[in-house]
Amino acid sequence: MWITFIILGIVAFTFTLLLMVARRKMGSIQSVPDSPQVVTLTDQNFSNKIKIGVVLVDFWAAWCGPCKMMGPVLNDLAEEVNGKVTIGKVNVEEQKMTSSKFKIRSIPTMILFKNGIEIHRFTGFKSKETILREFERRSLN
Fold first, then answer.
1. Of these four, 34, 40, 77, 106, which has the most CB atoms within 10 Å of its CB?
2. The domain 38-137 is classified under which CATH number: 3.90.1170.40, 3.40.50.720, 3.40.30.10, 3.40.50.150?
3. Active-site residue (options: 38, 54, 56, 67)
4. In angstroms, what is the C-alpha Rg of the chain?
5. What would the pLDDT profile of 63-93 be if each residue is shown by its tens digit?
6. CB 89 within 8 A of CB 41
């Protein structure tokens, strides 16, 4: 019985230690400035920006490590699709109405819209290749 408690204690301690290290590493990730081709979306302009064409919207927050990792991916993607798909970003801390409307529960979440209608949703960090494959699958690029 005691051995079980000791093993569980060691496992819990190890897990806590690994979690602390991971949080420290995520916190040290630097933000990359958005490309001029990435559109900042707000509660006020969101509906107008997504209603025509294909738009990939990234829901993010400044404190989110995986969101910071998505920054360079989205910048590269915006350069590569060169206007065929609009890339936009919504800060969930500042644009709460839009985040709530689309039931954003975890970040990063990216929603792909076509003429204002949601056609696909990505959650978590995704590579540029994964997103491009989804564009190809839907014949968007």
1. 77
2. 3.40.30.10
3. 67
4. 19
5. 999 999 999 999 999 999 988 999 999 999 9
6. yes
